[in-house]
Here is the input.
Amino acid sequence: MAAKRLVYGLYNDEEILLEAVKSANEKHIEIYDVYTPFPVHGLDPLLGLAESRLHIAGFVYGLLGTMTAFLGMTWIFTKDWPIIFGGKPYWAVPSFIPITFELTVLFASIGMVVTFYIINGLGPGVVNNYLDDRITDDKFCIAFDGNDISNSDAESFFKSTGASEVHEKDL
Amino acid sequence: MSSYVSPIREPLITGSKSYHDITEDLVSPTEKVPSASWVIGFVLAISALAVGLFCIAWTIWHGIGTWNLNRTVGWGWDITNFVWWIGIGHAGTLISAILLLFRQKWRTGVNRAAEAMTIFAVICAALFPGIHVGRAWVVFYFFPYPNTRGPLWPNFNSPLLWDLFAISTYFTVSLLFWYTGLVPDFATVRDRAKGFRKKIYNFLSFGWTGAAKHWQRWEYLSLVLAGVATPLVLSVHTIVSFDFATSVIPGWHTTIFPPYFVAGAIFSGFAMVLTLMIVTRKILNLQDYITIAHIESMNKVILATGTIVGVAYLTELFIAWYSGYVYEQFAFFNRALGPYWWSYFGMMACNVITPQFFWFRKIRRSIFWTFLLSIVVNIGMWFERFVIIATTLARDYLPSSWSYYSPTWVEMGIYLGTFGLFFTFYLLFTRVAPVVAIAEVKSILKSSGNQYSGKAEPGHHHAHVTVDPHFKSYLNKSSYDYARDDKGNLSYGSTAPSRTSRLVEDEGEKSSTASTLASTASTLAADDLKKIEGIGPKIAEALNASGITTFAQLSETTTERLQEILDTSEGNYKGNNPESWAMQAKLAADGNWDELKDLQERLDGGKFA
Here is the structure.
């Protein structure tokens, strides 16, 4: 696959960025991606980003933890090796609750975090191409795919929306 | 952000920071050579750790007999320290999880360091049960794994096993939560670093790009993790209290233990956060990010939880009397008036009386008192665990087996060692990671930065960039030097003015509000106020915090206003008289350095002679 060429503009403030994204939507210019130093609220609907389903995954992982703990202890203490502790029944449900709860939380957390990194394509040793070093500092970046828009159009767009810099980069 | 913040809220970020200033201030401590105080602290911490490791090795080599435990006193300093450290480990996740759900913005200033503290404190805590079992090398028998001994499973009905699950889950979840928050900040460090350092931070930052979708998921993840971590925080110390409450020991088997332990844990955790943060903010110059408002908020939590703990102590006493159960009555009588009366007295004085001082606003907002009282609370909470464990076990049902427990040097050495471990990790953390969450602080700047907050100083109103439509239209009209290089690529970044200087120009040209904007503009190029006779580094800081950063501003400030700033700042400036400062500043602002020198020669410590 040919290298992707991105044209991107850097903005100095998230409010200006939001206006610029609105303007791009009005002009029907497709945005490749937006990069910011912190989560900018109000950006997701403008970019048409669907709500994340991470919490649903978290629920499923949590449920898996609940089942693992509760069914595991049930099997161990009723089938595998039944022992009477302190005159309690083998299947002592109330005393299974703390561990069941802890494993629910543990599974949900680990599962969600691992899922988060995998679907984002992030992880130890991953090297991504970064458009600009200042995006993690104080620059707010809108990037267009160079095949979707001509340089002059991109330039005039960035100019009219108050970008402080325009660059292009091959990824 | 345009979310509404009440004007009576104090700003949480002072010093009129820009986004770049935040990056600069928070990343630079990891980029500099360690200071002398850091090196001294690190050497001390490592030495304490070495003592601890020696004592642990001694314990493992010679056996638990090197401790002063006996037939009835099966738990001593080890479990006291375990519960104490676990309690301290409660503040971090409480701050990052519960306060996130409650939308408390001040958590952003302290959550990173508090979470780090949590993780290190839990490591210290976990050490104690690990070596207390005696055969530390087979401690993994606790975990239910298919084994060749039957398989023989641990007892899932035992609170001690619940505790193992609670603490390992708590540790894991806190670590994941902490690290996920750190990833974008490591990316910030990475993008400023060069060479090998860049490689390290590239690894640590997991290839973070700051894409919109990633941030969206990141926020979801934080929120849901906070949601599951909130009951987790409460469960951990509840389960620790079950270690005691499910026993049949008078003084232990009370139903009040879970809430009382949780409140005590938060109480001691916040005290430790304050102890650490007061030192950290000072050494790393983070006063603009961890403000008096943060300290006051934490002191309020200490007051609330400390009062709950106080009520719990009194309730226990009442119930012991009201139960009519002689063993329970004896247990409490013995605690207060028996051979360990001193520890009970220490506990009551430190935990019941101390937090009540925080009803006074002056004390809540005083660095000195907060630091002192936070240490008192730490001591008091250690006494609480000692009272519960040692007094109860030393005098059980049979007077023939009564004894007086005091620790051996080995036990004391291990406790010292955990301090070493804790501070070694903490000091390394301050070198490797930004101690304040950079991205999170940036995200509250527009709502809680002093220049945007409704509480900006009178006569010092900053432009509301977020709401001013003229500003935006002005920006749209700005001209830029676009140019194409020989390859036809767009480039003009090098000639574009930086964010700060552009703000200055933009705002300076807006004549309708020129006077107010000029003050904004001038704050961006701060002067060294220490050049004014009578102003030292501390006062200069106080003035900066009040928005006075330049000679021009100082020259326009009245003596009464200056006196007011001095009176409300932390520290004692009674001897300082600001009467001549405005006059001196005027000369400095106009560049009349010779005249200023003449004037200063006639002044006596900044006062008119």
Remarks:
- The beta strands of chain A are 5-11, 33-35, 140-145, 165-170.
- Chain A has two domains: 5-51+129-170, 54-120.
- Chain A touches chain B through 85 residues (CB under 8 Å).
- Residues 93-120 of chain A form the longest helix (28 residues).
